[in-house]
UniProtKB/TrEMBL annotation:
<dbReference type="GO" id="GO:0031640">
    <property type="term" value="P:killing of cells of another organism"/>
</dbReference>
<comment type="similarity">
    <text>Belongs to the glycosyl hydrolase 22 family.</text>
</comment>
<keyword id="KW-0081">Bacteriolytic enzyme</keyword>
<dbReference type="GO" id="GO:0003796">
    <property type="term" value="F:lysozyme activity"/>
</dbReference>
<keyword id="KW-0378">Hydrolase</keyword>
<feature type="domain" description="Glycosyl hydrolases family 22 (GH22)">
    <location>
        <begin position="98"/>
        <end position="116"/>
    </location>
</feature>
<dbReference type="InterPro" id="IPR001916">
    <property type="entry name" value="Glyco_hydro_22"/>
</dbReference>
<keyword id="KW-1015">Disulfide bond</keyword>
<keyword id="KW-0929">Antimicrobial</keyword>
<dbReference type="InterPro" id="IPR019799">
    <property type="entry name" value="Glyco_hydro_22_CS"/>
</dbReference>
<dbReference type="Pfam" id="PF00062">
    <property type="entry name" value="Lys"/>
</dbReference>
<dbReference type="InterPro" id="IPR023346">
    <property type="entry name" value="Lysozyme-like_dom_sf"/>
</dbReference>
<protein>
    <recommendedName>
        <fullName>lysozyme</fullName>
        <ecNumber>3.2.1.17</ecNumber>
    </recommendedName>
</protein>
<keyword id="KW-0732">Signal</keyword>
<dbReference type="GO" id="GO:0042742">
    <property type="term" value="P:defense response to bacterium"/>
</dbReference>
<feature type="signal peptide">
    <location>
        <begin position="1"/>
        <end position="27"/>
    </location>
</feature>
<keyword id="KW-0326">Glycosidase</keyword>
Amino acid sequence: MARCTPPALALAAVLAVVAALLGGAQARHFTRCGLVHELRRQAFPTDKLRDWVCLVESESGRETSIKSRQNKDGSYDYGLFQINSRYWCGIGKVGGDCKMKCEDLLNDDISDDSRCAKKIYARHKFLAWNGWKSKCRDKRLPDISKC
């Protein structure tokens, strides 16, 4: 029978705490209806839900942990809504017009992402997102009627 020494117990406790902390920051992949449900919970306007779903599907594939390749201007796009670091968030520090860290857009809690996306929309409508312009504007939008 193996004995647990105090250092081994301390290491196990530290690993358990780290695992618990990381567990809360995991990424999330939404189903289409799961995304619709979450957007409703985040109070996105019902009449624009199909556009928001199309935007998210075209920008991040409904995945919260996506960080883009570096853009031509040196910025990156983060999270479910692919929010740009040049204008909206700060890399490694609170910054941008949304006054948040870009890395906070990569976890499974989309409440801060949603606030920032709504701020972007209030200023630029969907035209701030290239994915929406190329794949959603004047195109057939996703069917969310079963959601």
